[in-house]
Amino acid sequence: MKGCGFISKAMEIPYIILLTHGRWGEELVDSAKSIIGDVDNVYSFSLLPEMKMEDYIDSIKEVLIQAPPNSILITDLYCGTTTNVALMLSNDFDVKVVTGLSMYLLIQVEEMRKHKDLNIEDALKQIIDENRDKCDLLKLEDL
Fold first, then answer.
1. Which of 14, 41, 42 is nearest to 28 (CA)?
2. CA–CA separation, 92 vs 76, rounded Å?
3. How many whole angstroms separate alpha carbon 106 and alpha carbon 15?
4. Which of the residues 14, 114, 132, 138 has the least number of beta carbons within 10 Å of its own beta carbon?
5. Cα–chain center distance at 43
6. pLDDT tens, position by position, 66-86
7. Domain 14-131: which CATH number of 3.20.20.150, 3.40.50.510, 3.40.50.1820, 3.30.1130.10
């Protein structure tokens, strides 16, 4: 509906939601901002030892309730608690779950999600493949 002054949820840019052990995700977002500038709708949820799991999950749900379809949960540890929480939440919310958080991954996902008419799942698969290639044992003479 042209001129109505609103954007439907389906047209919104997906949220990026980081689930990490400790405050690493918060620091990563701050560091990413120093490289790519401000980012909108990027949330970080830190799982801390003193937290009750129910409180952690409820705080994430508060954001997911407002999140557009295809929002992206990125976790820090394959098969860790944060990933298990993300997978559980994916049963109730229209989200994609990616594990293996890194600065490179966060920046790529941030740039990717801004493109309209993009198949999010295919784009994420491509980003994941690229990230696998970036994890390597390096020697100066090989560069």
1. 42
2. 21
3. 12
4. 138
5. 8
6. 999 999 999 999 999 999 999
7. 3.40.50.510
DSSP the chain: -TTSS---GGGSPPPEEEEEETTHHHHHHHHHHHHH---SSEEEEEE-TT--HHHHHHHHHHHHTTPPTTEEEEESSTTSHHHHHHHHHTTTS-EEEEE---HHHHHHHHHHTT-TT--HHHHHHHHHHHHHHH-----GGG-
pLDDT at 117: 81
For residue 1, what pLDDT is reported?
35
Q: How confident is the model at residue 134 (pLDDT cuts 50, 70, 90)?
A: confident
